Automatic annotation (TrEMBL):
A single GO BP: protein transport
Similarity comment text for this entry: Belongs to the arrestin family.
Recorded coiled-coil stretches: none
Organism of origin: Clytia hemisphaerica
Gene3D superfamilies per record: 2.60.40.640
Domain of life: Eukaryota
InterPro entries: Arrestin-like_C, Arrestin-like_N, Arrestin_C-like, Arrestin_domain-protein, Ig_E-set
Protein name per the record: Arrestin C-terminal-like domain-containing protein
GO cellular component, one term: cytoplasm
Arrestin C-terminal-like domain: residues covered: 172-308
Length: 321
């Protein structure tokens, strides 16, 4: 019994999980046959695209919004021709075709949203057959824009403050003032700790015993089609990390601590596409069960790709965010 033809994409450095703009990606398309195979061509494409789709209910109508954006598309034909009726025969055994692609400059990081959208880069190798379904295989390539935490503009802390007169219905309990600071810098990589300093001046008649710190991803999705006007947007907030801070009863409360940690799979900040933009902020909120107007501060941060103290001289610096 004859085995089915096999086709695979093998990278020269299989251990490299992430590539950056300006880098070269090399490897081989490998075909294994136990008998000769007539084909039109053997080709490899490497491309990137963004895609979003979401549904909204307006009155009794259901509206579906969709956006697509092609980032780039490369093609390499190893054997045969793309637009030709001629045939070529692939030999029996294992055949390897080498390739090299350069990752384009100025492209966004890979991103997978929750149900709504993605930014994806893929290679697809294909054997185009004359009278049967084509034989193909896909391989996802993860790309990160260079966002360097060592750049001077990211090496300053960022802080904010707010004052809230807390109460419930017609009852007023007095003001609570809160300030929060992320010291030292404003850009962090996945897996890094985000420290928080917090000061609370409680001049209300109620106790303040705890606060919540969250790392929130805001994804902005836009309907968009080539040659058409941009459509509506939808904004989704996702809590990707959270921690609690407990206080002893006091008028003046202070917290200096580790804050929270950005998960290892956190996507970088992303602003390059029309249809998908990704940003982050740290939310510091005093937990008050007896009121709806809890004091809250939102501190914007950047999720980067080059950690503090790591040199990125081997990465194309023209792509720095």
């Amino acid at each position: 019994m004859m085995a089915d033809p096999k086709i695979s994409i093998e990278l020269s450095n299989e251990k490299q999980e992430i590539f950056y703009p300006g880098e070269k990606i090399s490897g081989h398309v490998v075909i294994e046959l136990d008998k000769p195979l007539e084909t039109k061509n053997v080709c490899l494409t490497f491309g990137g695209k963004g895609d979003v789709v979401w549904v909204e209910t307006i009155a009794d109508d259901i509206e579906t919004y969709h956006g697509k954006e092609e980032i780039f598309m490369f093609e390499h034909i190893f054997y045969g021709q793309r637009k030709s009726s001629s045939r070529v025969v692939l030999p029996t055994g294992r055949t390897s075709y080498s390739f090299v692609f350069s990752v384009p400059n100025g492209i966004p990081s890979s991103y997978t949203g929750i149900k709504i959208g993605f930014i994806r880069y893929e290679m697809e190798a294909q054997i185009t057959l004359a009278y049967k379904s084509n034989i193909k295989v896909k391989r996802t390539i993860h790309i990160h824009e260079v966002i360097d935490c060592n750049l001077p503009r990211y090496l300053s802390g960022i802080g904010m403050s707010c004052t809230e007169d807390v109460g419930f219905c017609c009852y007023k309990y007095g003001p609570i003032r809160m300030s929060a600071l992320i010291p030292g810098r404003s850009c962090f990589c996945p897996g890094e700790n985000i420290p928080i300093e917090m000061m609370i001046e409680n001049n209300s008649s109620k106790l303040v015993t705890e606060a919540t710190i969250k790392l929130i991803q805001t994804a902005i999705y836009r309907e968009h089609h080539e040659h058409h006007k941009d459509g509506p947007i939808t904004v989704r907030d996702y809590t990707i990390a959270k921690s609690k801070v407990l206080f002893k009863d006091s008028t003046y409360l202070r917290y200096i601590g580790e804050g929270l940690t950005a998960p290892e799979n956190t996507s970088p900040t992303n602003w390059r596409l029309k249809i998908i933009k990704v940003r982050y902020h740290v939310e510091v909120r005093i937990d008050l069960s007896w009121t709806t107007n809890e004091p809250c501060i939102e501190i914007p941060i950047i999720i980067g790709t080059v950690p503090l103290g790591i040199k990125s001289k081997d990465i194309n610096q023209n792509n720095w965010f």
